[in-house]
Amino acid sequence: MTGSQLIDWSSAGVPLLVAAGAIVALVVDAFWPGGRWRRAGTIAVASLAAAGSWLASTGSTGPIVAGFSWVILLSALAVVVLAQVLEDDATMPAGESVFLMLCATAGALTLASASDFVTLVVALELLSLPSIALVAMQRDRREAVSSAWTFFLASATATAVTLMGLSLLYGLTGTLTYEGVLVGLQAERAPLRVVTAVVVLVLIGLVFKVGAVPFHLWIPDAYRGATVPVAAFLSVVSKGGALAGLLVVLAYPFVALQPRWDVFIAVVAALSMTVGNLGALAQRDIVGMLAWSSVAQGGFVLAPLVAVAVGSDLVLTAPLRYLAVYAVANLTVFAVAAVGVRRLGGTSYAHYTGVARRDPLLGVALLMGLLALAGFPPAVIGLVAKYVVLQPVIVSGYGWLAAVMAVNVALGLVYYLRLAVVAFAPASRVLRSEVAASGATVREGRGTAIAYAVVVVGVVALVATSVAPTLLLGPLP
Amino acid sequence: MNGLVVALAVPAVAALLLVVARSLVTDLVAARVGTATSLVVAVLLLVTWIGHDGDGYAAEIDLVWVRALGIHLHLGMDGISFPLLLMTALISALVCWALVDHPPAGDNATPGLVGLVMVVLTAAVGVFAALDLLLFFVFFELALIPMWFVIARWGDPHDPVGRRTAATRFLLYTVVGSAFMLVGFVTVWALTGTLQIPELAERGDVLDGGWALFAACTIALGLAVKTPIWPLHLWLPDAHAKAPTVGSVLLAAVFLKLGTYGLLRVLVSVLPGPARDLAPWLGALGVVGIVVAALACLRQTDLKRLIAYSSVGHMGFVVLGIATLTEIGVAAAVFASVAHGLVTGLLFFNAGSLKRRFGTAEIAVLGRGLYARMPALAVVLGFACFASLGLPGLAGFWGEMMALRGAYEASAGAGDAGLGPALAAVLLVGALLGVLLTSAYFLRIVRRTLQGVPTPHEHDLDLDGSERGIAAVLVVAVLLLGLAPGIVMGVVEPSIPAILGGAR
Fold first, then answer.
1. Do A402 and B186 touch (CB under 8 A)?
2. How close B187 gets to chain A, by Cα (Å)?
3. CB pairs under 8 A between A and B
4. Which of A54, B59, B101, B410 fits a disulfide with B419 by CB distance 3.0 to 4.6 angstroms?
5. Does residue A38 lie in a domain region?
6. Could you say which residues of chain B have pLDDT below 70?
């Protein structure tokens, strides 16, 4: 295997730079303590910027992988900036938090650019373990610890299942590089049952990280236990990495087996969006709602994968485009939540009653973010994203999946709009809720101002891309 | 400068300004800004239409919007859309005028409400002008959320829970339908590779086969909810009854037309083959709607609900006209849509006036003898009732008459009709029965409220200020359309072949 000794620096450089940033953040914090969030954040931003410039100069293994890498990098950047709101949270030490976030980001980037299954598993763990640690960080909170335990157990089980599948795959093909597996699977007349088992077992680990049904139960639990920026991280960076990995695996080594897995993906996607939306309907807390909504959105991202074997560019770019829109919209809403924790004193809907009246920009950001997630004008970009993921589903002939998606678009609007309505409640309702939410501690500070800047950037991006969707879709492949 | 683009931009800018500067603008100024903006839109549309040279689409503009997806900013109007556009702008002006004298409850709430009306106007103009399927969809959806707020926030002040439920039900029904419509549009794109409506309408090879039928079914479903076609009308009575006058008028006059217009523009002209397969079903459901709505009207005790149900019946005639796929049927559909907008708008304005006075629109509470108690209001209400039941010489007559004529032609075996002779004959009889029942329930209203021994009420107060003006404008319009239907027909007729082109 001489090929494996060569390192493809163009794609390895990006995660390596991020990982280097992680180590620098940790070491600096260990030897010169007291720098707190501002210094750790600067290091993180610098390393992400370095990785970005590397990516811009060398490209990656392909335009799709490069696109995913950009989404992951920029989302990680937004999350790191957003994390500045944690500045006076004693349970979240700056150095460690940034270290873990950057490690997981490196894992997500590796997941996207991996070209053999061993790298894939390593990347999966590099993404999972720091994420679990981030959730567990608030060790004084019982909730956080129990969330982290659930997350850990589910994650370990999923990885074990994937490894089991990989061992079968190795037995079938004698190699674990993507190229070798592709050739091996095309050549081999392997027993049908074994191949089916391999596909399902290997995909489980990735589907778990995407947070699709039936492996979604850790998501609401983990989001509830984590701080808001960490939840934002899980919902965008972690999901994006897993999705990229899944797409590459399906489109490259497993493409020969397509009839085996497209039904699996279709069912998982349909269940995810339905269960996620039903779960979100019952939520009265912005983070809880976003947790379930991210399960549902995961279903929408997965849906176009049923058409991977059709092989047109459309099919490969659809999940990427959807993910990019989802990332912008979701991060905007999470930024509003992060600001809300500080300025309004909590994340339950009661805290947000009439927020648009007190702070119109926050209200508009919430409205645009939620409607973009729902796929509704005036947030046209969200509608375009829904259109983009419907295209491959129809092209591949999955009429029933398109129908399920249609019903879920309507279902999603119900709970997204509910929060928007709360935010735009008339003045008479605001007084009552202020009584209800009194006693909450309201903390201002530089960190809150920085998070507010993320809100502004998010709303500007959503408005601009709604007027001219090409701004977002043009640069993507 | 393209007149259509300006007509689209003006209300959008007005909406934005009103919402941003809502604390600086008084109720009166906001209402006047709304009226003026709508009138400007109407004038722009009229000037643009008169100025165009006659063939193709007036003020057509085609710019690439999203290159990666082939979505264009493609606008234009023809004889089908122009009457609806003009009616929409007129109704919007009247709705805002009504707010001049009767601002909604709440401190300085008019700027917000007028802002939402302006968004609805933008959306409606966009739907009627869009010549790109996705653009059509964007505008189709844009109107929904503002309408939710209009109903849920400014609806029936006596029933805060009910108005919210009604608003949410309206939204859910429409959104489920339109999400399916989006699936249909994607399917059309997958079959043809384009989203441009004129290009699709002019295609030589008619789309056919299972997927084309799938697309037609999903699109028809979305439009059927909006129109509404029985049995998908269940959102309508509550939404109309609980909405404020502004909302009821807009829903009836503008929103329902988005559905009927869509049936012509994106179902019949884009998918003529499958539309022919669906025509018998649409026609049958339309006639069932006519009869069921008329029967329901006979049992209504609330005036607003009654008018709402009568809309289902009128839309049944429109759908029947479309389903015949004859020239006269399509002409009937457009004419009846415009006439229904004016007549039902007038009915809802009157019902709103009564509801504001009495706090309810229950027929029993309104009492008898309105002719004696409030002569002007009663005369206008009576006029609107007669126009709505299709009295010859008023606007309501021609649409129904031509729809029946279309069904008759189909039953007489017109070769290219969408309905078979036997089915068309049955539908014709059903629709005629509906005409009779419609007369029955409107006459019941006239007898129960307008005529009889006057039962004076402390809130008896005749039409005042803007109410008089609005009534006058609509009465003149209804008379004009009734006495000179040619002014609409002359505009509509040249554009019909383009709609029916592929269906032949």
1. yes
2. 6
3. 84
4. B410
5. yes
6. 1, 54, 107, 204-206, 414-415, 502-504
Least confident residue range of A37-51, A449-463, B67-81, B411-425 = B411-425
Same domain, A176 and A303: no
- Give B459 to chain A, closest Cα distance, Å: 29
| pLDDT of amino acid B93 | 92
CB contact under 8 A, A474 and B68: yes
Q: How far is B175 from chain A (nearest CA, A)?
A: 5
Domain termination residue (choose one: A253, A281, A303)? A253
CB contact under 8 A, A406 and B182: yes
Domain range for residue A432? 259-477
pLDDT for A429 equals 62
Same domain, A213 and A264: no
- For residue A432, being part of any structural domain is answered with yes
Q: Which residues in chain A are contacts of B69 at CB distance < 8 A?
A: 384, 387-388, 469, 473
CB spacing of A403 vs B189 below 8 angstroms: no
The reply to whether A238 and A298 lie within a common domain is no
Chain A residues near residue B176 by CB distance under 8 angstroms: 406-407, 410
Residue A407: the pLDDT is 92
| Residues A287 and A326 occupy one common structural domain | yes
Tell if the CB–CB gap between A474 and B67 is shorter than 8 Å. yes
The 3 state secondary structure assigned to chain A is CCHHHCCCHHHHHHHHHHHHHHHHHHHHHHHCCCCHHHHHHHHHHHHHHHHHHHHHHHCCCCHHHHHHHHHHHHHHHHHHHHHHHHHHCCCCCHHHHHHHHHHHHHHHHHHHHCCEHHHHHHHHHHHHHHHHHHHHCCCCCHHHHHHHHHHHHHHHHHHHHHHHHHHHHHHHHCCCEHHHHHHHHHHCCCCHHHHHHHHHHHHHHHHHHHCCCCCCCHHHHHHHHCCHHHHHHHHHHHHHHHHHHHHHHHHCCCHHHHHHHHHHHHHHHHHHHHHHHHHHHCCCEHHHHHHHHHHHHHHHHHHHHHHHHHCCHHHHHHHHHHHHHHHHHHHHHHHHHHHHHHHCCCCEHHHHCCHHHHCHHHHHHHHHHHHHHHCCCCCHHHHHHHHHHHHHHHHCCCHHHHHHHHHHHHHHHHHHHHHHHHHCCCHHHHHHHHHHCCCCCCCCCHHHHHHHHHHHHHHHHHHHHHHCCHHHHCCCC
Asked whether residue A68 falls in the same domain as residue A189, the answer is yes
Q: Are residues A243 and A270 in the same domain?
A: no
Q: Are A29 and A122 part of one and the same domain?
A: yes
Determine contact: B71 vs chain A, CB below 8 A.
Answer: yes
pLDDT at A3: 46
Please name the member of B149, B171, B190 whose beta carbon is closest to the beta carbon of A395.
B190
State which residue of chain A sits closest to B12, comparing Cα positions: A378
| Residue-wise pLDDT tens digits, A344-384 | 878 888 888 888 888 888 999 999 999 999 988 888 999 99
How many structural domains is chain A composed of? 2
pLDDT at A260 over 80: no
Co-location of A174 and A321 in the same domain:
no
Residues of chain A with pLDDT > 90: what percent? 28
Domain endpoint, select from A224, A253, A282: A253
Query: In this complex, do A390 and B71 lie within 8 Å of one another by their Cβ atoms?
Result: no
Residue A2 lies in a domain: no
Q: Pick from A390, A421, A469: which is nearest to B183 by CB? A: A390
Q: What is the pLDDT confidence band of residue A1, given thresholds at 50, 70 and 90? A: very low
Mean pLDDT for the stretch of residues A238-258? 84
For residue A388, list chain B residues with Cβ-Cβ distance below 8 A. Answer: 69
- The answer to whether A371 faces chain B, any CB pair under 8 Å, is yes
Interface ipTM: 0.89
| pLDDT 10s digits, A56-97 | 888 767 788 889 999 999 999 999 999 888 877 777 788 888
Work out the average pLDDT over A398-411: 91
- Looking at the domain assignment, is residue A313 inside a domain? yes
Predicted TM-score (pTM) of the model is 0.92
